[in-house]
């Protein structure tokens, strides 16, 4: 006797801004679908952000489908609570078909078409599946962390909330991308002693020639550039985000200025030998590289202003306010008084539950604008899926609309495979 499992035309894995944005378009088209979310909808914005967190892009770029930012400060930067309220408003307006607290254990294509989905809530079949769970799943912590003394408190950036959760003593922040630079600033502003291991992350200005740099880049069409037109092509997906902040109305993050104020800067962390931390002699090159990017972006804005004949304040070039006297390559944990380490070196993808031949050698899904080589299987919400804004509030709506069109075009084929699914799932 065969048992017909619950079936949906489209099953979406992940209830973040990507999954809900797609739901918006599928609801408008009358397409049956269900969203399965492991935690709560858009939980990362509540659970993986520190207390002083703000957006690093201006509020006007918050443009989820049918839910643009309509607050009083379009050129400001929403804080953690305001972001949560914005997202809650989106969900309330949308009323998506969503099941929370459901872990998807496996998704696999069926021979006759469609997919089998196993979850903590039972089994389903689906004509099509959209993976909208993002690409930041497993916090990266190096193996040397296992050898740090038990007396040293360790946190990943996903678990950092505020300086008060850390014991007295000096803090080592490893990584100076967006999270690392902002967390180092948070600790520094609270009067904590900070040692920062600096990697090769670039930086950019917050404001330049009278406007937010984001405003200039939007006018220049940067946020509409598809990944296929970027000089790095798909390689841009591996780039570290520029560090800058929206805190206190927005400002640059200048690690050199922090050094003048007492923060200790080192190159990238390489090893731990007993009590001794070892760093690569890369600090000067890292700071110089970040400044080249900073000045390069500003120079492109200068060119745009000149081409368009725009009236703007005069141009400028950043000049370093501090230089390292030399490369410090070792640091004793005990002698330096380090009592806490915060790992800010990112996340790795974990798609082990997705049993489909779509991955490259580094575990990332291969796709063209979210469409994979497996018919009816899509990805959404990944960085540079199509444009710079694909993993952000600014560009996910466009990507979701595109996939919704592809899903509707595929519907007849997906429905034709339903009989084969029921046979494959016979009990």
Keyword list:
single chain; 427 residues; FAD/NAD(P)-binding domain; 7-stranded mixed beta sheet; 21 strands; 20% strand; globular; disordered C terminus; Auxin_biosynth/cation_transpt
Structural class category: alpha/beta
Radius of gyration: 24 Å
Please mark out the parts with pLDDT under 50 across 5 or more consecutive residues, or reply none.
Answer: 419-427
CATH level-four homologous superfamily name of the largest domain = FAD/NAD(P)-binding domain
Q: Oligomer, anyone?
A: single chain
Please state the average pLDDT score.
Answer: 93
DSSP strand tally:
21
CATH class of the largest domain: Alpha Beta
Q: Could you estimate the helical fraction of the residues in percent?
A: 25-40%
Shape: globular
């Amino acid at each position: 006797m065969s048992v017909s499992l619950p079936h949906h035309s489209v099953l979406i894995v992940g209830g973040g801004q990507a999954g809900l944005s797609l739901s918006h378009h599928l609801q408008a088209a009358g397409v049956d679908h269900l969203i399965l979310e492991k935690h709560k909808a858009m939980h990362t914005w509540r659970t993986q952000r520190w207390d002083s967190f703000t957006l690093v892009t201006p509020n006007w770029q918050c443009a989820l489908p049918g839910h643009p930012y309509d607050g009083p400060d379009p050129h400001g930067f929403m804080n953690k609570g305001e972001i949560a309220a914005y997202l809650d408003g989106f969900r309330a307006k949308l009323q998506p078909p969503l099941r929370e607290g459901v872990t998807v254990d496996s998704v696999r294509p069926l021979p006759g078409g469609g997919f089998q989905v196993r979850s903590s809530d039972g089994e389903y079949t689906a004509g099509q599946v959209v993976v909208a769970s993002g690409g930041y799943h497993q916090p990266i912590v190096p193996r040397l962390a296992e050898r740090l003394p038990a007396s040293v408190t360790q946190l990943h950036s996903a678990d950092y909330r505020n300086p008060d959760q850390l014991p007295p003593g000096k803090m080592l922040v490893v990584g100076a991308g967006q999270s690392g630079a902002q967390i180092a600033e948070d600790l520094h502003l609270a009067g904590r002693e900070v040692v920062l291991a600096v990697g090769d992350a670039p930086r950019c200005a917050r404001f330049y020639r009278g406007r937010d740099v984001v405003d200039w880049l939007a006018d220049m069409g940067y946020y509409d550039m598809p990944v296929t037109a970027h000089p790095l092509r798909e390689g841009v997906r591996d780039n570290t985000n520029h560090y800058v902040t929206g805190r206190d109305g927005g400002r640059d993050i200048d690690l050199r200025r922090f050094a003048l104020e007492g923060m200790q800067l080192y190159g990238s962390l390489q090893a731990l030998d007993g009590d001794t931390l070892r760093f690569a002699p890369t600090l000067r090159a890292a700071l110089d590289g970040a400044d080249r990017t900073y000045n390069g972006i500003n120079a492109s804005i200068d060119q745009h202003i000149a081409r368009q004949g725009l009236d703007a304040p005069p141009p400028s070039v950043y000049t370093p306010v501090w230089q390292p006297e030399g490369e410090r390559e070792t640091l004793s944990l005990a002698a330096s008084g380090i009592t806490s380490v915060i790992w800010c070196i990112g996340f790795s993808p974990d798609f082990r539950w997705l049993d489909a031949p779509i991955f490259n050698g580094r575990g990332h899904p291969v796709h063209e604008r979210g469409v994979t080589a497996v018919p009816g299987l899509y990805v959404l919400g990944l960085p540079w899926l199509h444009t710079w804004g694909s993993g952000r509030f600014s560009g996910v709506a466009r990507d979701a609309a595109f996939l919704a069109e592809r899903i509707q075009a595929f519907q007849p084929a997906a429905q034709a495979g339903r009989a084969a699914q029921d046979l494959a799932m016979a009990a």
